[in-house]
Amino acid sequence: MRDKNTEKYYSKRAPEYEQIYFRDMPDRRKEIEDEVAFVKELCAGKNVLDIACGSGYWTERISETASSIVACDISAEMLDIAKQKKFYCPVNFIRSNLNYLPFAPNSFDIVVLGFWFSHHPSQDYPNLFSNITYPLKAGNLLWLIDNNPPAEGSVNQSHHVDDHGNNFKKRFLDNKKEYIILKNYFEKDELKDIFSPFYKINRLIYGKYYWSVMLIPS
């Protein structure tokens, strides 16, 4: 299941996407750097599948310790930017819809999914979990990171909620062009309720700006 407007927005936003990682907010930046350090250690010596890799921010950092990476995204524009980065291990880029990943089962030591979960329709979570888990070798794990709810009074509040409870909000490019995209936010207990039927939650960090979770398939 795909939200075409969200995909279109991120393809157009590709050249400016990584601004989110370098905002002049020290506490926000520290949360990201803490997760960078963690996931680099987690992926050390591993064969990694980086799903929805976007502009390659996490791919580049994971490459400092990983044995190899396959990075995939549906956006050709994002992949073009990702390919320009400097990598420290072999990285193979593949344009692919995460609903139809072209990999054999049991192919990877770890799967990472950065900043996509909040864009996925909630009614399709069982399919998402099946699709991102099957390439994983038995007994290994997944790592996800995404945004926490914006501060109360933020200009980025909800535009509307659909019949499935999915939140949609306005987003603007630097050129002021407006898009309405799917963007769900979660409280810590909601994340536990979503993941627990499918995975053992090995680690769940819920910060001020971001959450991350390490999951082992049940």
Structure explained in plain terms:
The mean pLDDT is 93. This protein has a seven-stranded mixed β-sheet, with helices on both faces. Strands 6-7-8 form a three-stranded antiparallel β-sheet. Strand 9 (199-206) and strand 10 (210-217) form a beta hairpin. The longest helix has 17 residues, at 26-42. It has helices spanning 4-13, 26-42, 57-62, 76-82, 125-133, 188-195; strands at residues 47-51, 68-73, 91-95, 108-114, 136-147, 158-161, 167-172, 178-182, 199-206, 210-217. It has a domain at 35-154 and 186-212: Vaccinia Virus protein VP39 (Rossmann fold, 3-Layer(aba) Sandwich). The protein is of the alpha/beta class. It is built from six helices and ten strands.
- Count of helical stretches: 6
Q: What share of the residues does DSSP label as strand, in percent? A: 25-35%
Biggest sheet: strand arrangement: 3-2-1-4-5-10-9
- Terminal residue distance: 24 Å
Q: Give a count of the beta strands, DSSP E runs of length 2 or more.
A: 10
What general outline do the C-alpha atoms trace? globular
Main pleated-sheet profile: 7 strands, mixed
Mean pLDDT: 93
